[in-house]
Amino acid sequence: MACYNCGNCKENNPTYYCIARDEVIINENYIPEEKKRDGWKEGNKSYEFHRRNTRKEMED
Known about the structure:
60 residues, rod-shaped
């Protein structure tokens, strides 16, 4: 069972498929990344502008 250097084991995933072993392996070195919060946030200038405009459109 020689490694085929597919790179699956080097990625930061909780599980990966090993071609050489022909099985799914649980990565014990997995480090979860922090979740990024994208999108609209209250207090954000563009959020407030967008919210006010949509409220005006709904009232009209």
